[in-house]
Amino acid sequence: MLTILGFAMIATFLVLIMMKKMSPIAALVLIPALFCVFVGKGAHLGDYVIDGVSSLAPTAAMLMFAIVYFGVMIDVGLFDPIVRAILKFCKADPMRIVVGTALLAAIVSLDGDGSTTFMITVSAMYPLYKRLKMSLVVMTGVAAMANGVMNTLPWGGPTARAATALKVDATDIFVPMIPALAVGLLAVVVLAYVLGLRERRRVGTLTLDEALVREPESETVLVGAGAGGRTGASAASSTGAGAGAGAEKASAGAGDSRDPAAEGDASDDDFQGLDPNRATLRPKLYWFNALLTVALLSAMIMELLPIPVLFLLGAALALTVNFPHIPDQKARIAAHADNVLNVSGMVFAAAVFTGVLTGTGMVDHMANWLVDTIPEGMGPHMGLVTGLLSLPLTYFMSNDGFYFGVLPVLAEAGQAHGVSTLEIARASIVGQPLHMSSPLVPAVYVLVGMAKVEFGDHTRFVVKWAVLTSLVILAAGILFGII
């Protein structure tokens, strides 16, 4: 009976969030609470939730302060020289432009927010693609895959969800996976190079002055639910279509998608990508911010302190030094509050789901059933099985559904065959390059909307390459003995 109720709870949760009948946070709380009563253990619900919250608090703290930290770094201009350098590297060579798109998307993805990544990348690269008449689906596809690989960062979402669902340390999942993920990112860059060569053969190479011949711009229309008919860059920076960064974050981090040649002479500096005059810039503190970020990431990889403590200290130091006046600090925190609240709220709500699933014994019963159905020969290879399943499952369902509903069952089944929970957790993140183009990901609508690409065209182009990238990561993980 517990097996049936467990799968029924997961199915109910998945259906409701996929049909958008409930928000993930509401579904994570109400559905397990209801099933806890059905199981006859409603009196223990409080204990389950408190146990879950206690174990998930470090993950929530890490996400909260990582979002604030990287949001502030974008605000103060840490990534501006990188963006300008990439755009100068691109010149008007299609091959360089496509490779530059992959590099820019990967770098900006450090903030862990897909919407912001796509806003900055498209704002910077769209004028070049437009003037050279390059394929815009190449831009959206490469940006989505690069962001998908980088989305596995501990503060990006999937790794934190896996750590939350399996009650393990996000560092233990991510740090060993760095070599495999580096291979995946290299695969995206190589693919960008190949696609760029194809575009070069198709459109040729122009000088920068020729590329800057001005063409009339049409309105940018965001597609998908929530666009609400808004057009232009203002729509891209609104909260519609899942642009979770918020209007202020978009204006501070992404600039707009106006014609860069309209502001001055036809030179490399016209391709800014980021608003060079935003009030939050702190050019005199650039090297401080750069060294702080390098030190923070190095300390994370070396595990000098727990990740939540590192980002808590980093965010506090970044705010204090860059914005010494309290009203300015409050404004920066408010600018990123939407992301912080959504992500941390999701983590604490997940405490109810995972607490009930574990406390009532449903996950144990489901795992036993799954172990009995998996062929004996596949049991010791549950890491490979999990990695392969992560591709279709994270594409056709949300990360919440997969990591909180399916992954605990796979982990229990793996443990029964001697496969560690950490190995299952690492394998579960390999499907993210494909997931970032899923129709269930709101940020993808920001990407295709700003790039003026039909979602169907983007899907037809990117799926095969994203699957290949995910398989490369999985193969590298197995080859390096990580999975």
Automatic annotation (TrEMBL):
GO CC annotation: membrane
Membrane topology label: Multi-pass membrane protein
Subcellular location: Membrane
Keywords of the record: Membrane, Transmembrane, Transmembrane helix, Transport
One Gene Ontology MF term: citrate transmembrane transporter activity
Regions crossing the membrane: 58-79, 134-153, 173-195, 285-302, 308-327, 339-358, 378-397, 462-482
Record's compositionally biased regions (Low complexity): 232-255
Segments of this protein annotated with the region Disordered: 224-273
Residue ranges occupied by any Citrate transporter-like domain in the UniProt entry: 15-431
Protein name: Mg(2+)/citrate complex secondary transporter
The organism of origin for this protein: Streptomyces ambofaciens (strain ATCC 23877 / 3486 / DSM 40053 / JCM 4204 / NBRC 12836 / NRRL B-2516)
Gene designation: citM
